[in-house]
Every structure is written in structure tokens, then in C-alpha cells.
Design brief:
9-stranded mixed β-sheet, 18 helices, GMP Synthetase, Chain A, domain 3, 26 strands, Rossmann fold, 2 domains
């Protein structure tokens, strides 16, 4: 099922219902929203873009984002949402790998991107008259029919090599995720609103479907991002607001609420995911703001769809093992099976630590044009997540560690090798190893251990400049530790466990 049909049906049923808001300002009702998407779809079709095509979206959070993505789906094409935090060089690589036929961007991000594409696909800015004309194009009568296995969302995540991989998500994947949200996470009502304070290219944006189906409001903060004070104000002004938030965002929101003596009035549900939530933080969050929190565990390869910890479990303090459950990521969502597997692929008994694996209708069919990575990640129908954990006898899964070296800082995934490769381009750097250091605010921060060449002088400012020129700002190390050499085992492999131990000792 093409999700653009959901928009069209809601627009037919409730054309005058509020749809798109910039802060508290109404930008479009559902009829106007659908009309804009149908116009964009028609404009794309006139360019020969449809089924089998990819269109990249590289823009910040704004109401035009939803008009653009539903316009892409109206035409039957696949959307390639790119994190607006990524460097233009990184975005250009994704656009090329995805074979995007067109890029929809904005003035802020589109200008530097143009210098990186070097004759690649055309960029149309949401700030331009051309984009406005696309919305006004004679609309498509109906969206293009798509089967359940049709590719509609090509989400780029990084692998252990630091190279982005395109996760192929189908109509069926996202439809099943949507049903699971209603069953395992939260109900959505017409009077509700979804607030896009986190990047719409990721977890925040992927929760649009549930609210389209129910004819709820879609709100983009005027700041375009996360501002705790602004969110509290929008909750009071709009009422019945739901949002996706990384644990660090929850921490900042609770701090802001405490500072002004508020409890989060008008915020109905806060779904948190994307990194470890400290027990003390969620305990305080419930104490300050009440039972508004739900935890979701998923990954790009199984979007928001592995486990969920219900509002009740997050707030419950009466169960004999409530604390253990609070520190878990919940139980398997309705459409999937979740297992803890040993290295031999056999299921482990309750309480034993192994790799978390999942299978079901929310699991991706594979990586874009990368059969080797697909075969490594999906084995015998099971998606091996790379996350280590254990499951208790009641089915609650607790994350124990990651088998990969991925760092999660502020809800964003950072892969060490990607940062290491940039630092190694400095003429004075001999060796480098990047690890994550636990941090109360960000979850983890990036630390680089650097071994300079004999006699070379390397300044942190020089390494910072390299990173800012090559990768997104949030991936830059927060701390540089200069060492004579990196610790290695007998086979010459850098012992990152030893480096983490040094940080703990410090």
C-alpha cells in the first residue's frame, strides 16, 4: 500500500482538519497538504520520475519536508531522507550511491551541496519559486499503486567500516511498523499532534504515518529543532502533543521543566530511543513529568520495530522486578520474533548474553546494492542486530553491550573508523583509535587516541579543522589523548577495551 493513499483518504474524509503547523501557526489543512503533495507528484512524473526512481531529501525540519516526501510517494518513487546534520560531502556520497534522480533541499543545505555533486542530479530548494510551482502543478488524480514489497524509503546508516549502507524499506515494512505502533507503543487520535523536534530524516519523521492515518496535526517547531523551552510552550499551547526524543533530549526537557516548575502540560507521549537511558534519568523524568514515557528499541534495518517498553512499565513501581524492567528495552513488538542467539546461531536460555536477533514483517529485505552486507546481517531469515543483550523469562530484553564499536552520542550513531580515517589524513598522525566515553548529558562522547609520528607536532585545532572539513560536526572528537603508541594484541589489533579502561581510570 502506497502511504500517499493514506494522506489522500484522510484529506477526503476530513479536508478542513488542521494538518501542517509551523509552531502554533497553521500552514495547511489536510486538503491543502494533499493538494501540494499531489502537485509535487505530478511535477516529478513530468520529469520521468516514478516507480524505480529515487529522490533524495536533504533539508532541515520544516513543513515542506512532509509535502516533499508525500509528493515523492504520490509519484511512486522512493524517498532517500538524508540527515541534515551530515556534511555536504557525506550527503553527496549518499546521493550518488542511491542513484537519486533529483534532490529536494533548502537554501542553507543546498548551496554547499551543489559544490559537491559536480554535475550530479538537479537540486530544487524548498525556498525556491520552482518548488512552489511544483506544488501548484495540476495534481495527480491518485497516487501510483505500489505493492507491499515496493521500495519507498532508502535510509542510509553506517556499518562497521564507516561506509554508509542503504537500508531498503518497503511499503510492507512501514505499514507493519505503523500497526505495531498502535498496538505496542501508543494510540493516536484526531485531536493529537506529532512534534518534529528530532531530525525528520530519522525516528521523528518515520512516525508521521500513524498521525496521517488518524488525521492528526503535524507540528514543526519554529526553531526547526530541539529547544526544551519551546517544546514546553508548544505543549501548553497545542495540547495532546506526542514526540520522539533521544535520551539526551529527555534529560534536557526534564531539566527545563524542573527549572520553571512545570510538569510537561500538554505533552501526551514521549517515545524515547536511539541510545542508553540512564536509570536515574528516567526515574526523575517520571517523577517530574508523570507517566508520559514509552521506550522503543529498533534500528534502521527494523525501524522502531524490535521491542517496546510500555508507558505502564516505565511508570510502574509496584512489580517485584520493576527496576529490572525499567532498565530493559521491553518485550518483542507484535509483528516480530526476538531471540538471543549464540555465535553458532542457537537460541540461548533466559538470562544468558548473546546477540539480539529479530525476524518479521518490519525487517528490511536487504541493503541497497550490497549483497555481501545483506548476507552477513540477515541469516536464515534472522536480522542479527549487532547488539548484545539478554532476555528474561518474561520476555523482557536488556541491552548489555554492542558487538560493534558504534558510538551513540545524543541519539546519533557515530562509527569510529569513519572518524579515524579522517584523522589519519593529517601528515603528522601515525596511528589513531576512536572510542566512546560515557557522558551524563550525551550518553557518550567521542574520544580520539592519537599517536603522532616521531618528532611530529600535532595540535587538536588542526585535527578539528580536518574533521569539520570532511564529516559532520557532531562526529568530531570532544577530546584528544596523545600517546606514544596504541595498545595492541599479539596479532597487531588495537585493544580498544584497554583504551576504554584508561578513560574509566581517568
Amino acid at each position: 500500500m502506497n502511504p500517499a493513499f493514506w494522506l489522500q483518504r484522510t484529506a477526503t474524509r476530513a479536508p478542513e482538519s488542521a494538518a501542517l503547523l509551523a509552531g502554533t501557526k497553521l500552514v495547511a489543512d489536510y486538503h491543502q497538504f494533499d493538494r501540494a503533495a499531489a502537485g509535487i507528484g505530478a511535477a516529478l512524473a513530468q520529469r520521468g520520475i516514478g516507480r524505480g526512481s529515487q529522490v533524495a531529501i536533504y533539508m532541515g525540519n520544516r513543513v515542506e519536508y512532509l509535502q516533499a516526501i508525500y509528493g515523492i510517494w504520490y509519484a511512486g518513487a522512493a524517498a532517500v531522507p538524508i540527515n541534515g546534520k551530515l556534511h555536504a560531502k557525506e550527503a553527496a556520497w549518499i546521493i550518488g550511491n542511491a542513484e537519486a534522480a533529483l534532490v529536494l533541499s533548502d537554501n542553507k543545505l543546498g548551496s554547499p551541496l551543489a559544490g559537491e555533486l559536480d554535475g550530479g542530479p538537479e537540486i530544487i530548494s524548498a525556498d525556491s519559486a520552482e518548488f512552489a510551482a511544483m506544488r501548484e502543478t495540476a495534481p495527480m488524480h491518485r497516487p501510483v499503486d505500489l505493492d507491499a514489497d515496493a521500495l519507498i524509503w532508502l535510509f542510509y546508516t553506517s556499518g562497521t567500516t564507516g561506509k554508509p549502507k542503504g537500508v531498503m524499506l518497503t511499503c510492507g515494512n512501514l505499514a507493519t511498523m505503523t500497526w505495531c505502533y498502535f498496538t505496542d507503543v501508543d494510540e493516536v487520535r484526531t485531536e493529537d499532534a506529532i512534534l518534529y523536534a528530532a531530525p525528520m530524516s530519522h525516528g521523528a519523521g518515520i512516525y508521521n504515518f500513524m498521525h496521517i492515518l488518524r488525521g492528526a496535526r503535524h507540528v514543526v517547531p519554529e526553531s526547526g529543532g530541539f529547544d526544551a523551552g519551546e517544546i514546553l510552550e508548544l505543549g501548553r499551547a497545542l495540547g495532546s502533543v506526542s514526540m520522539f526524543a533521544a535520551p539526551t533530549m529527555v534529560r534536557r526537557l526534564v531539566d527545563a521543566a524542573k527549572a520553571c516548575g512545570e510538569t510537561g502540560e500538554g505533552l501526551r507521549t514521549i517515545s524515547y530511543a536511539g541510545g542508553p537511558m540512564y536509570e536515574a534519568d528516567i526515574l526523575e523524568a517520571v517523577e517530574v513529568m508523570g507517566p508520559r514515557f514509552v521506550q522503543v528499541y529498533g534500528q534502521g534495518e527494523c525501524p522502531m520495530g524490535i521491542t517496546a517498553l510500555s508507558r505502564h512499565d516505565v511508570a510502574d513501581r509496584s512489580h517485584p522486578r520493576w527496576r529490572e524492567r525499567l532498565n530493559s528495552v521491553g518485550t518483542a513488538q507484535s509483528a516480530v520474533l526476538v531471540r538471543i542467539l549464540g555465535e553458532d546461531g542457537q537460541e540461548l536460555p533466559p538470562g544468558e548474553i548473546g546477540e539480539i536477533a529479530v525476524r518479521g514483517a518490519t525487517v528490511m529485505p536487504g541493503y541497497w546494492e550490497n549483497p555481501q552486507a545483506t548476507a552477513k546481517t540477515i541469516r536464515d531469515g534472522w536480522l542479527w542486530t549487532g547488539d548484545m543483550g539478554r532476555m528474561d523469562e518474561d520476555g523482557y530484553v536488556t541491552l548489555q553491550d554492542r558487538s560493534k564499536d558504534m558510538i551513540i552520542s545524543g541519539g546519533s550513531n557515530i562509527y569510529p573508523r569513519e572518524v579515524e580515517e579522517v584523522l589519519l589524513t593529517h601528515a603528522g598522525v601515525h596511528e589513531v583509535a576512536v572510542v566512546g566515553k560515557p557522558d551524563a548529558e550525551w550518553g557518550e562522547v567521542v574520544v580520539a587516541f592519537v599517536a603522532p609520528l616521531a618528532g611530529a607536532e600535532v595540535a587538536p585545532e588542526e585535527l578539528d579543522a580536518l574533521c569539520l572539513d570532511r564529516i559532520a560536526r557532531f562526529k568530531r572528537p570532544k577530546l584528544y589523548r596523545f600517546v606514544e603508541e596504541l595498545p595492541k594484541n599479539a596479532y597487531g589489533k588495537v585493544l580498544k577495551t584497554e583504551l576504554r579502561k584508561r578513560l574509566e581510570e581517568d
